[in-house]
Amino acid sequence: MSVMEKLSTRRTYRRFRQKAVPQDVVEDLIEAVRISSSAANRQPVRLVIVNTPEAVATVQPLVKWAAYLPPEQGTPKADEQPTLYAAVVDDTSLPGDHGVDLGIALANLTLAAWDKGVGSCIMGAIDKPALTELLHIEEPQKLMYMVAFGYPSHEAHIVPMTEETGVKYYLDENRDYCVPKRSKEEIARYL
Ligand SMILES: Cc1cc2nc3c(=O)[nH]c(=O)nc-3n(C[C@H](O)[C@H](O)[C@H](O)COP(=O)(O)O)c2cc1C
User: Where is the Nitroreductase domain (predicted)?
Assistant: First the structure.
């Protein structure tokens, strides 16, 4: 699969097969963040890997899925849950604003996973105080995002954004995600 095909199919996945992500893939995820570009090469991004079934189960109630969908459609059921989480943490002791560095790390992390067939969901709607305590994250480290991982049990397709769809993703008749994207003409212009 070409990089463009990988980028096109690397969508957000929210239902998963109950199969563990192997350790060599976990090592790839860590490596993908380790070698990410960052401003002044300061490398402020840290990870907390949550990969035992018991620990994963404690994270599940502290994240919120698919705000555009009713919970019965968007929230994974007990046998659809991710099998791995990574907490993405900012080392705030390092100078500068790390927003771009975090974004690049998230992109590398989720693309490295997808290269191994592992789907992901970046999660910002999380109970930060509870997760910070659960994952033993201490100042100056700051929890920014959780990323859920697993082998997807659904597909996700890009569809044209129309007046009818707006930006909201929806499920089709197969319960696959349809993700509207703006046209090339709308997002880019030639001088
Ligand atoms: C910064 C960020 C935060 C997100 N937070 C959540 C979240 O809390 N819960 C969720 O289900 N999806 C979350 N998403 C996934 C987005 O809803 C998803 O990326 C968007 O709908 C576009 O779908 P796509 O990733 O397949 O292109 C988040 C994505 C990003 C980039």
Answer: 8-151
- What is the per-residue DSSP string for 18-51? S-PPPHHHHHHHHHHHHT---GGG---EEEEEE-
Indicate whether residue 12 lines ligand 1 (CB < 6 A). yes
Predicted pLDDT at 155: 98
Is 64's C-beta closer than 6 angstroms to any atom of ligand 1? yes
Q: Identify the three-state secondary structure at position 93.
A: coil
**Percent of the chain scored above 70 by pLDDT?**
100
Confidence of residue 139 (pLDDT cuts 50, 70, 90): very high
Is 1 a residue whose pLDDT tops 90? no
Q: For residue 65, which atom of ligand 1 is closest to its CA?
A: 11
CATH class in words for 3-153:
alpha beta
Q: Is residue 164 very low, low, confident or very high in pLDDT (cuts 50, 70, 90)?
A: very high
Q: Where in the chain is the domain with CATH 3.40.109.10?
A: 3-153
| Domain topology for 155-191 | putative fmn-dependent nitroreductase like fold (2.20.180)
User: Which residue, judged by its Cα, is nearest atom 30 of ligand 1?
Assistant: 122
| Maximum CA extent, the chain | 55
88 lines ligand 1 (CB under 6 A): no
